[in-house]
């Protein structure tokens, strides 16, 4: 069965510091993987996705994630945090063709300190 | 496109009352999803539709919950009777079918959510 684990429900970084949000998945077949961001009182928005093309995926707002099959990981990074990055981030997995059940992690709330 | 439209944005009701949440998906999207978000359980898939037909409702918590999609542009999620533990943010999301193109075919587009408080 598919599952997603996000390590750390809360992460704090200083402005300008590296952002690293961790996501590990479990899937019996090559998955599609996603990172979504949720700002207060809003719905989730796509940051980036992995669909078996390049293993390093670049998204919006300077974020990127690397698919590592050997580690079953899809960690999200950004070299330099900005105050506007403060939000909740969700990792999600989907088997893709034939099924449409997107499984979300429990989320990581990112706090950016001035 | 105006995106996925949900109403109401906020609903406060008393225990035992009927609650109806509404969703208008993006035009042309074949799949519609209802999710519930709580602090304790995170984001849970309740049900999803394909071409107005419910495909998987295994996430619907109990018989008090029902969802319908009478046409391609409208869906409802109903709770009757409501209970305090139903308090959550309910999201609707939609995607186009897989044959609509490779790159964006499997990206969920979410509405802004309906925040339900049951007293």
Q: Please, could you describe this protein's structure?
A:
The complex is a heterodimer of chains A (114) and B (119). Chain A is mostly beta strands. Chain A is 0% helix and 54% strand. In chain A, the strands form two sheets. In chain A, strands 2, 4, 5, 9, 10 and 11 form a six-stranded mixed beta sheet that branches. Chain A is globular. By secondary structure, chain B is an all-beta fold. Chain B is 0% helix and 52% strand. In chain B, strands 2, 4, 5, 6, 9, 10 and 11 form a seven-stranded mixed beta sheet that branches. Chain B is globular and about 40 Å long. Classes of the chains: A mainly beta (114), B mainly beta (119). Chains A and B meet through strand 4, strand 5, strand 9 and strand 10 of A and strand 4, strand 5 and strand 9 of B.
Which segments of chain B are poorly predicted (pLDDT under 50) over 5 or more consecutive residues?
A: 101-105
Beta-strand percentage of chain B? over 45%
Which regions of chain A are unreliable across 5 or more consecutive residues at pLDDT < 50?
Answer: none
Q: How many helix segments of chain A? A: 0
Counting copies of identical and different chains, the oligomeric state is heterodimer
| Order of secondary-structure elements of chain B | EEEEEEEEEEE
Major beta sheet of chain A, specifics?
Answer: 6 strands, mixed
From the spread of the alpha carbons, the general shape of chain A counts as globular
Overall mean pLDDT of chain A: 90
Write down how many β-strands of chain A occur, each being a DSSP E stretch of 2 or more residues: 11
Q: Mean of residue pLDDT of chain B?
A: 90
- Report the structural category of chain B: mainly beta
- Helix tally of chain B equals 0
In which range does the helix fraction of chain A lie?
A: under 10%
Number of strands of chain B: 11
- Rg result of chain A: 14 Å
Q: Report the span from N to C terminus of chain B.
A: 36 Å
**Span from first to last CA of chain A?**
41 Å
Radius of gyration of chain B: 14 Å
Helix content of chain B: under 10%
* Largest interface, Cβ cutoff 8 Å: A-B, 24 and 24 residues
């Amino acid at each position: 069965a598919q599952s997603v684990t996000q390590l750390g429900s809360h992460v704090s970084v200083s402005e300008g510091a590296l952002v690293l949000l961790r996501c590990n998945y479990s899937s019996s077949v090559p998955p599609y993987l996603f990172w979504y961001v949720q700002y207060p009182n809003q719905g989730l928005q796509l940051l980036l996705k992995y669909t078996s093309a390049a293993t390093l995926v670049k998204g919006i707002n300077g974020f990127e994630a690397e698919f590592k099959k050997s580690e079953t990981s899809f960690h999200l990074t950004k070299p330099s945090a900005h105050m506007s990055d403060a939000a909740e981030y969700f990792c999600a997995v989907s088997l893709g063709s034939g099924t449409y059940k997107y499984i979300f992690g429990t989320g990581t709330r990112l706090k950016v300190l001035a | 496109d105006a995106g996925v439209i949900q109403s109401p944005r906020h609903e406060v009701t008393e225990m035992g009352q009927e609650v109806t949440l509404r969703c208008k998906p993006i035009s042309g999207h074949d799949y519609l999803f209802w999710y519930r978000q709580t602090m304790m359980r995170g984001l849970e898939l309740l049900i999803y539709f394909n071409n107005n037909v419910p495909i998987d409702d295994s996430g619907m918590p109990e018989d008090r919950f029902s969802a319908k999609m009478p046409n391609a542009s409208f869906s409802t999620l109903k709770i009757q009777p409501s209970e305090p533990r139903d308090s959550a943010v309910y999201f609707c999301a939609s995607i186009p079918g897989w044959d609509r193109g490779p790159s964006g075919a499997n990206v969920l587009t979410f509405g802004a959510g309906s925040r339900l408080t049951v007293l």
